[in-house]
Write a structure and sequence with these properties.
With 116 residues, this protein is mainly α. The protein has 6 helices and no strands. The longest helix has 29 residues, at 83-111. Pfam families: SpoVAC_SpoVAEB.
């Protein structure tokens, strides 16, 4: 049943993004930013972790999870280190994913030749 709910929740997040494109005529950047902020707000009010527990990958794979990770890391480090923890927490939690994207993007650019 976890696969079903992951599909439904992840699909619903994608449908919301598509509606933002089609109905509200938002650009990809505005849509991306909005979904990240929504994920951050949901984590800030304590609703995103229960969503992850319920939907698993359906809530951790979409871009809303990035906003969740930013706020979650900042709040976690703020409890331990105060105001400085807010800044360090954001970088500590997200650094692995961002580093992987940069490294694999660079490797891809070295291996493959762009068309054009």
């Amino acid at each position: 049943m976890i696969y079903f709910w992951a599909f439904v929740v992840g699909g619903l997040i994608c449908v919301i993004g598509q509606i933002m494109f089609d109905v509200f005529k938002l650009t990809p950047g505005h849509t991306l930013s909005t979904l990240v902020v929504v994920g951050a707000i949901l984590d800030g009010v304590g609703l995103y972790e229960p969503l992850i527990d319920f939907a698993g990958a359906g809530a951790t794979v979409p871009i809303t999870s990035f906003g969740n990770a930013l706020v979650h890391g900042a709040m976690q480090e703020a409890e331990q280190h105060g105001l400085v923890g807010i800044l360090t927490g954001v970088f500590e939690v997200t650094s692995a994913g961002i580093s992987a994207a940069i490294i694999f993007g660079m490797l891809g650019s070295l291996i493959f030749k762009p068309k054009g």
